[in-house]
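TA notes, week 10

Several of you asked for a full example with nothing omitted. So below is the full record: structure tokens for the whole chain, then the designed sequence directly under it. When grading your own attempts, check the secondary structure regions first.
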């Protein structure tokens, strides 16, 4: 049986831990709020009405691909493309190809950043492995102009950050929705998490000028994971209605 991602791959390790995944989407939540194409998710109304639900929906597809057989993964990729095509047909215009690439680029960047924050630095080979997995996802979705490998991706990623982000009323509203659905304390944790994993361009546009309050706590958290203390921390900090779903993110 052939898997889309090899069972020994670093990508499986990254996407097999709930805390890593939560940091991936904390960062992506900040960056996507700045994306010039964020109005597409406002068109459907699903993102502002249920941002956490959208998070778990995206997680479901990403994990389905990472841990599935090649056949199952390709079916999931096709299903994602069909969902977006239906939205495009409803609106009467196409989502820009660069917007699709931006989302793919976020998954690559934050997968690497989250793992290096909570686990250990990745080698260039492992970073290339992360890129290759999402590159194949992009090809499966029919995306154009994807860099051929990780080294060619780096300058393109930087170019996208400079060209495709801006702070708008969508940004302000989306962060208001995050606060509404998370509550003040968890919302603050979201912001502090973003300060650690988001690129400088994102931090500048979001007016984050201070060092994250979580920075000195991360080493203690990593140490506590050896004794399963992270389970207790997540039990306290995470929204009750999502605890079961978050627990399922951990792959033994």
């Amino acid at each position: 049986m052939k898997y889309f991602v090899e069972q020994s791959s670093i990508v499986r390790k990254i996407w097999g831990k709930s805390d890593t995944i939560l940091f991936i989407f904390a960062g992506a939540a900040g960056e996507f709020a700045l994306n010039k194409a964020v109005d597409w998710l406002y068109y459907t109304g699903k993102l502002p009405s249920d941002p956490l639900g959208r998070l778990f929906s995206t997680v479901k597809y990403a994990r389905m691909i990472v841990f599935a057989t090649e056949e199952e993964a390709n079916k999931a990729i096709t299903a994602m493309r069909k969902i977006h095509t239906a939205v495009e047909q409803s609106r009467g215009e196409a989502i820009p190809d660069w917007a699709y690439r931006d989302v793919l680029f976020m998954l690559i960047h934050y997968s690497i950043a989250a793992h290096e924050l909570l686990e250990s630095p990745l080698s260039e080979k492992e970073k290339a492995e992360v890129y290759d997995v999402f590159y194949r996802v992009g090809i499966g979705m029919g995306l154009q102009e994807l860099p051929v490998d990780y080294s060619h991706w780096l300058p393109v990623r930087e170019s996208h950050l400079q060209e495709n982000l801006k702070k708008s009323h969508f940004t302000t509203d989306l962060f208001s929705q995050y606060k509404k659905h998370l509550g003040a304390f968890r919302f603050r944790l979201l912001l502090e998490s973003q300060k650690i994993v988001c690129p400088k361009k994102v931090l500048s546009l979001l007016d984050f000028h201070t060092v994250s309050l979580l920075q000195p706590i991360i080493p203690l958290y990593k140490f506590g994971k050896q004794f399963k203390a992270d389970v207790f921390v997540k039990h306290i900090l995470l929204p009750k209605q999502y605890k079961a779903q978050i627990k399922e993110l951990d792959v033994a």
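The chain has a mean pLDDT of 87. Use that as a sanity check on your answer.
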